[in-house]
Amino acid sequence: MSDTKYQVFISSTYEDLKEERRAVEQTIIRAGDFPVGMEAFPAADEEQFSFIKSIIKQCDYYVLIISGRYGSLALDGKSYTQKEYEYAKEIGVPVLLMVREKREELPVNKAEANPENKEKLEKFIQDASTGRIRKGWETLDGLKLAVREALDHAKATKPRPGWVRGGQSTSAENLQMIISLREENDALKKKLEDTTPKILLPKNLAGLETKIKISGSHMVRTSSSRVRENFFFTISLGDVFSMIAPHLILPKIDSSVESIISALLVDHEYPDENSSAASIDDGVFQKIKIQLTALNLITVGAGETNGGGVELFWELTSLGKQEMFSRIAIVNKE
């Protein structure tokens, strides 16, 4: 696997493609890269769209998943999904297009009922398909394969800066800037924290060196079929934190974090197995969440999603970012 890691923006309508987005997230993680999507942002509006544009600008590739719905409309009558695509195209971020085949067979709740929006959707697909390779899909497995193939092809033909690990990095100035910004942010947050009631935690609270037992199941492909198998192994809480921390630089929805942790843990423990659909037991997931929260490395709080619902979101605290930098950031050796 290359030392260069890429940030990949996932764009689609939301409510009708939750499972598909989660599948694409896992595919990108398995490729060794970092997925970023609308789950990290509050409900769509013009102000939030300006923020999303700044995130797209930081990404190396842009995966656009189109199915049967056009999506929430902005003030100009275009869907936010189309506006995201047009911005990525405008600034030159390579677009990887995934279009659902046989859209006429979709159930009512996943199809566009408004005739005007249906026409906009078809025009959107036509525009997005012009001048680039378009991948079709019908199933989750088909979508994951299409995304992996498109991402591999894009890396080979449209190289992007990405993030470079180890001695290959020449970003000492960038690291220093990050640390300076972190220190400034920490100082501001400390003023707020000083006015916040303190929660008394046990003096013997277990730290990141603590080993935790991981249990769950995953699908394993054999020569003739796919079977779901249980797994059990032990890993330090610190290793779990190191895996998930880079994915929490932006807020991440609770169910998405569970999916990401499951995929990362199974890939770490069973790197040579043809595994998919990993899922750790809920009790294990809740234990990880509670322990990282108690150690003040993450916060978990309610927030509004793009679909108008309310979900739990994970985010690194200032201490969590500091811990992440100390574990992952590359520093020059004297």
Automatic annotation (TrEMBL):
Top-level taxon of origin: Bacteria
Every DUF4062 domain range: 7-88
Protein name: DUF4062 domain-containing protein
Organism, as annotated: Paracoccus aerius
